[in-house]
Write a structure and sequence with these properties.
Oligomer: single chain
Number of helices: 28
CATH topology of the largest domain: Na+/H+ antiporter like fold
Strand order of the largest sheet: 4-3-2-5-6-12-11-8-9-10
Shape: elongated
CATH architecture of the largest domain: Up-down Bundle
Number of strands: 12
């Protein structure tokens, strides 16, 4: 059990992020993973995070997150962009709110009347129905905004959804205020209806006014500041001040925060710098917010809710969905918006819990809070676990989310985790058809290009690569199969059948295949074959599966003991090279990679992109100088090959490569010159790419005596 806030924050962040990554692998939104992590850590799970810690030491993170979430939603309610969907937003917002209230209230009244518990009257049932119907209107803007950002969603459905969510908070406050006033009147203990209505309009109007004033203040200060850190500090201070002011006045921080963002984004200057600065500040706050929301969830509420809880949950779904459909039909919205938007409005959390707290703190309504609290909490548990999933499905169905690698046709509908495993498995590895003309062997070939054939799934690709390199070096391809020394010897027919796949592939390219069967250790046999056959290059395949570096010692031994380049091929999905990416750090690497790049590019008329990775803190002069030098090298080196280049100031070399990789078929790069302890201590960029990239990769090892002097470009 954790009682220290700092340790609690560390555990919540780590658990939330870990569970989110697991959720992503099975195509669930990250927010579902955050909530599940909190559920596991809280009282419904292992009880690692105590209620005292959540309630008294970490509550301020929730308040900060709510204000940032509200401000972020305001950014998406830009009137200039909403012009075409403003009518849809108005109709859908009002109709779905009224429908959710009416269906939940009516369903609750029917259910409680039929159950007719002891000590209850028709008036008690009516008051309960009104209050539950009002709470049902509220949605969870935080979950929806997080999913939209995670998917980088754009389109009419997304714009309409975020605008409806922003309006929904104001409608929920208004309907709740009227319902509470009616409940007071029915209970025979309350002020006039007019006073209650004025109180509702005061809460909404004052919240909007404070938000607008905050927005103007932020906009004014942003024009005086130009440093990103100063903008973040000033903007965050004003937003938090706005949130605390509204809480002290018993107003709506969410509504005020939305109006602050709405005000800034709709100004003529349209200054979005604060929004972008906050984007880098928000992620850990969001993780804490949603994980803490999961900690608050109590699965025991599911048992206490009973039939009323079921009616509340189902009635709210029906109200949100059919209300959105009817509102979209009345406004003439597109079928996508009309059919799918209602499913995205199911998440419910902070606002609903806040309304329940207001009911329980009202002495005139305390008698009903004992029923309302478990009912709403049960609905929150179910909607927070299932709602984000439906919201993501909705955006995917509308085709407005960014496509991931797992959405490509090659994955055939598999989840990201299943796709990743399948693309690295023998079943997922494929070789693109050979579409070019047959190659003509040299009249007097010199030497061999040796390739180690071992796995049926990769042998044809290795044979094709070796043949293309042989054509470049004016050599012949040699297939070497190394068996253990105690393996029984094969007959002539068995040997012929063993080499059949690579023989057939090489013949299709117009070359004869040399064959050699050895009984030795893998590394020793390959080194011997390269030495005796005057090898121009050695081509090897990384082991298939999730641990491609499992035979790194074998690869290092071969690379250290041959006098020619060794090309290690990492297979992922379809092996093709129409678009080749060549990332490099030093210009010396380009000279070493040139033969391999030229051979592969000329065989298929490929487009080659050279990516020069410089430190992130390099100056504009250094970037320009390197760009000019790279341009000169490309123009003077390649004549019949289409090539382009880019110079990147990389904060992370690996991420820069992975970000560019999806636009290419194949990556070619040099291997680390380090071995043993040095490699373990300093790492290897090539190995990191091999482990993380979803493209086939060529890692080229050069003879050690040719790689002693690597001079960085200055």
């Amino acid at each position: 059990m954790i009682s220290q806030a700092t340790l609690g924050i560390a555990v919540l962040l780590a658990a939330g992020l870990g569970m989110a990554k697991l959720a992503q692998l099975i195509r669930l939104p990250s927010v579902t993973g955050f909530i599940l992590a909190g559920l596991v850590l809280g009282s419904s799970g292992f009880g690692v995070v105590t209620v005292d810690l959540v309630g008294y030491q970490l509550e301020h993170f929730t308040q900060i997150a709510l204000m940032l979430i509200a401000f972020g939603i305001g950014e998406h309610v830009e009137l200039r962009k909403l012009g075409s969907v403003a009518r849809d937003v108005a109709y859908i917002s009002v109709v779905q709110a009224v429908a959710a209230f009416a269906i939940v209230a009516l369903g609750t009244w029917v259910c409680t009347t039929l159950l007719n518990g002891p000590g209850t009257t028709g008036m008690d049932n009516l008051i309960l129905s009104l209050l539950l119907g009002a709470v049902a209107v509220a949605t969870a803007p935080a979950a929806l905004l997080h999913i939209v950002r995670e998917l980088n969603a754009r389109g009419p459905l997304t714009s309409t959804l975020l605008a409806v969510v922003a309006v929904d908070d104001g409608l929920a406050i208004m309907i709740f205020g009227m319902a509470v006033s009616a409940a007071h009147q029915l209970a025979g203990d309350g002020g006039s209806v007019g006073h209650a209505v004025l109180a509702v309009f005061y809460e909404i109007g004052a919240s909007i006014l404070i938000g607008v004033v905050t927005g103007f203040c932020i906009d004014f200060i942003l024009h005086k500041l130009h440093n990103r850190g100063e903008m973040l500090t000033a903007g965050l201070a004003l937003l938090l001040l706005c949130g605390e002011t509204t809480r002290l006045l018993h107003l709506s921080p969410l509504l005020a925060g939305m109006m602050a963002g709405f005000t800034i984004i709709n100004r003529a200057e349209r200054d979005v710098r604060l929004f972008r600065a906050l984007n880098g500040f928000e992620p850990p706050i969001y993780v804490l917010f949603f994980t803490l929301a999961g900690v608050h969830l109590d699965l025991a509420a599911l048992k206490l809710a009973g039939w009323v809880g079921l009616v509340y949950f189902v009635g709210r779904i029906l109200g949100k969905y059919f209300g959105s459909w009817l509102g979209g039909w009345l406004s003439g919205a597109t079928p996508v918006v009309r059919n799918y938007l209602g499913l995205a409005l199911l998440p419910q959390a902070g606002v609903a819990i806040g309304l329940v707290f207001m009911i329980s703190s009202d002495p005139r309504l305390a008698a009903w809070s004992t029923i309302i609290t478990p009912v709403v909490l049960a609905g929150v548990v179910l909607s927070e676990l299932g709602g984000p999933v439906l919201a993501r499905v909705t955006i995917d169905k509308a085709g407005e989310g960014e496509k991931s690698a797992a959405d490509s046709p090659e994955c055939e509908g598999r989840t990201p985790l299943a796709c990743r495993r399948w693309l690295r498995s023998p079943q997922g590895i494929r070789l693109a058809p050979w579409e070019d003309k047959r190659l003509q062997p040299a009249a007097n070939p010199q030497g061999k290009v040796v390739f180690g054939a071992s796995h049926f799934a990769t042998v044809r690709a290795l044979a094709r690569i070796a043949t293309i390199l042989s054509h470049y070096y004016h050599a012949l391809p040699l297939s070497v199969r190394v068996h253990k020394k105690n393996t029984p010897y094969l007959t002539a027919q068995e040997t012929t059948d063993l080499f059949l796949p690579e023989t057939d592939e090489v013949a299709q390219l117009g070359y004869p295949l040399e064959q050699e069967l050895l009984f030795d250790a893998a590394a020793s046999g390959l080194v011997a074959a390269a030495e005796y056959n005057n090898a121009k290059a050695v081509v090897l395949g990384y082991p298939l599966g999730r641990n491609p570096l499992g035979q790194q010692k074998v690869l290092d031994k071969v690379a250290d003991n041959v006098l020619c380049p060794v090309i290690a091929v990492r297979f992922v999905g379809t092996m093709a090279w129409k678009r080749i990416l060549v990332p490099f750090l030093f210009f010396q690497e380009l000279e070493e990679l040139l033969p391999v790049v030229e051979a592969m590019a000329s065989s298929s008329h490929s487009l080659v992109t050279f990516q020069h990775l410089l430190p992130a803190d390099c100056s504009e002069h250094e970037l320009q100088s390197c760009e000019e030098q790279l341009q000169n090298w490309v123009e003077t080196t390649f004549f019949d090959i289409e090539a382009r280049f880019m110079v990147t100031g990389a904060e992370s070399r690996l991420e820069s490569i992975l970000r560019e990789a999806p636009a290419h078929d194949l990556l070619i790069m040099t291997a680390a010159r380090r071995r043993g302890v040095k490699r373990a201590l300093f790492g290897s960029l090539a190995n990191a790419v091999v482990n993380n990239c979803r493209n086939p990769v060529f890692v080229v090892y050069f003879p050690l005596e040719k790689s002693h002097h690597v001079v960085p470009l200055q």
